[in-house]
């Protein structure tokens, strides 16, 4: 190695001092580059819990019924909760499967249908019925004074709520099979949407009979609704969590909060959900699964 090369190799390293303005400029660029990541993490942390209720009644009635529940969960969790409304049950299940929802209010049939395709749906609580039970029945109804013989419903117009309603096809099929010795395939059934729509169709004489949740049959009895038969008991409507979008701690917190809700709080909620709550589990659906396979509903 030459003398010149030795001098270069042993020269100390020098740092070129940057002007203050340039250092600030580089710092600003670094912050700007990191900002999208920072904002992304903040947005994820504050993303609302997305909740959808079952469209059992009109949109106005459902929204008014569940708004107090949403506000209560927000207050207790200290997290934003957003209610998303769907007019169709299948749309709710599809959105849940696509992880666009975190919480859903469902009846037995939508839950069982969803569970078949998505085992990560987690039962949280059942909403008690007015009598204090975590169960209900479907009711086969006619209009007061109509001389309807159930065994003679063959070919007659019959009102159902919807395909994915518990008291829709499967609930009605169980009742006409047990009490009329018929199948819905023998009857001119039609889907009308909601329990109220079936009630009013019976009152107006547009159908000779229909199937609704017993709660609605009792509610509208003053209009002339007569209960002719009941189904077997099924689990009450409930709240379910998406275990793919909510962690186990969040799910347990929501369950614990709801089960500890004082009566003076849930008394302010909608009629369907104001009678208290009980722990929910998949085991409670064993009897309902005997009604039939949701995948085989025409």
Describe this entry's structure for a reader.
By secondary structure, this protein is an alpha/beta fold. It has two domains: 48-133 and 235-296, 3-Layer(aba) Sandwich (D-Maltodextrin-Binding Protein, domain 2), CATH 3.40.190; 138-231, 3-Layer(aba) Sandwich (D-Maltodextrin-Binding Protein, domain 2), CATH 3.40.190. 39% of the residues lie in helices and 18% in strands. The protein has helices at 3-9, 20-46, 59-77, 89-97, 108-117, 169-179, 195-204, 214-219, 248-259, 263-266, and strands at residues 49-52, 81-83, 103-106, 121-127, 135-136, 138-143, 157-160, 188-191, 209-213, 225-230, 234-235, 238-242, 277-279. A six-stranded mixed sheet has the order 2-1-3-12-4-13, sandwiched between helices. Strands 8-7-9-6-10 form a five-stranded mixed sheet. It has a two-stranded antiparallel ribbon with strand order 5-11. It is globular, with a radius of gyration of 29 Å. The protein starts with a helix and ends in a 19-residue tail after the last strand.
